[in-house]
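Each field is set out as follows.
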Amino acid sequence: MRTDRVDATIFSTASLLTLAFGGAEDFSAGLPPRPDGPPEGFAGFWRTADGGVRLYLAEDWSYEGTVAGRRRGARGTYHRDADGIVLRDESGLRTRIMPAGDGLEMAGHQLFRA
């Protein structure tokens, strides 16, 4: 006889409570609403001169990025603010990106269109 069970060792307390109460965690809480239409001037592939940092800003306001030496890439959403754009990854970490000359500056890295 086969029984379905959930291996609770991989879930956090919040995830277990969500499963127990039949709800879904709202990952969009605290995010600004996505603007209509594509982001002007930012969408596309960006990278550092040495290729160590790569960033793809999609037209649906999502992004994916990689940094050399890190096992996991980052992904999430982004939005415009008064100075540039702000990335927000799946964990809630926010990273500001500022226009700088012919490219973008992100956490001390100069990114150029790929």
The helical segments are 13-21. The two ends are 56 Å apart (CA to CA). Confidence is low (pLDDT under 50) at residues 6-17. Residues 8-113 form a domain with the Lipocalin fold (CATH 2.40.128.500).
